[in-house]
Amino acid sequence: EPTVRTELMEQIPPIAIFLQESRPKFPTAFFEYLMPIVVRYLTDVNNQVRKAGQEALLILLEQDLVAQSDIENKVCPILLDLSAPDSDDEYKVEAVNIICKMASMLSRTTVEHMLLPRFCELCSDGKLFQVRKICAANFGDICNAVGQEATERLLIPKFFELCSDSVWGMRKACAECFMAVSYTTSPEVRRSKLSPLFISLISDTCRWVRQAAFQSLGPFISTFANPSSAGLYIREDGTLSIRPSAQDVNSNSCQPSNNNITVMSSSANAA
């Protein structure tokens, strides 16, 4: 029964945490018994079971309970198969979504060598706009996961494609994550490539795209500032924040400070 398999998946993370805490008594139980079940359920015929399996996998990754070898040899190959061009549409959408969510939890080497090539392919998926939408909405997170060199060499060309996509929702998603993409690039790329691209979004024929671009204008401009002098920095959750100066920290003023203002840069708030 699918409900039984779903319930089982919901119990996997707490069991895995228990086994981790009791590792001397159960040194290989998780890797031999539980991890294969999680991997198998990523391809289950029932979508609720698959969803539960995906959520369990993300929790396990977040808790750093999955070995690097299992990630590279068991999890990534399954996701690459599910996101292949000839894969079922529903499986492909789910796979690209989990790939994007996983990126921030894996090592840069694993993301760049195993997942980035497929992500670039999915950005140009001409069959499913839902796939391109997920890629656009999570583009900033992928850039942050792979770093400047891979972003400028492989991702920026794909970002240009998505920013000129015929579906306005794609262009809107790009506008919303523009600051996160810009922050990962060099000042020269910001000036010579991203600035003209941003102008095209802020002049878009769709008012929803223009509105999203105007909302990202300030955050995008902030990426041109020198962090050491401007006090701007990106938190781990993808938000732009202002680091309080020593004078503000030592001040006993009762006036509310503006130093806690944050601007969302990641794709989590994308429609």
In brief:
The chain is mainly α and 271 residues long. 68% of the residues lie in helices and 4% in strands. The protein has helices spanning 2-21, 29-41, 47-62, 68-82, 89-103, 108-123, 129-137, 139-146, 148-163, 168-176, 178-183, 187-202, 207-222, 227-230, 246-250, and strands at residues 232-234, 239-242, 262-264.
Strand order of the biggest β-sheet: 1-2-3
Q: What profile does the largest beta sheet have? A: 3 strands, antiparallel
Helix content: 55-70%
Order of helices and strands: HHHHHHHHHHHHHHEEHE
Write the layout of secondary structure elements.
Blueprint: H1 2-21, H2 29-41, H3 47-62, H4 68-82, H5 89-103, H6 108-123, H7 129-137, H8 139-146, H9 148-163, H10 168-176, H11 178-183, H12 187-202, H13 207-222, H14 227-230, E1 232-234, E2 239-242, H15 246-250, E3 262-264
Antiparallel strand pairs: 1-2, 2-3
Helix pairs in contact: 1-2, 1-3, 2-4, 3-5, 5-6, 5-7, 7-10, 8-9, 10-13
What does this protein structure show overall?
The protein is mainly alpha-helical and 271 residues long. The chain has 15 helices and three strands. It has helices at 2-21, 29-41, 47-62, 68-82, 89-103, 108-123, 129-137, 139-146, 148-163, 168-176, 178-183, 187-202, 207-222, 227-230, 246-250, and strands at residues 232-234, 239-242, 262-264. Strands 1-2-3 form a three-stranded antiparallel β-sheet. α2 (29-41) packs parallel to α4 (68-82), α5 (89-103) runs parallel beside α7 and α8 runs antiparallel to α9 (148-163). Residues 245-271 have low confidence and may be disordered.
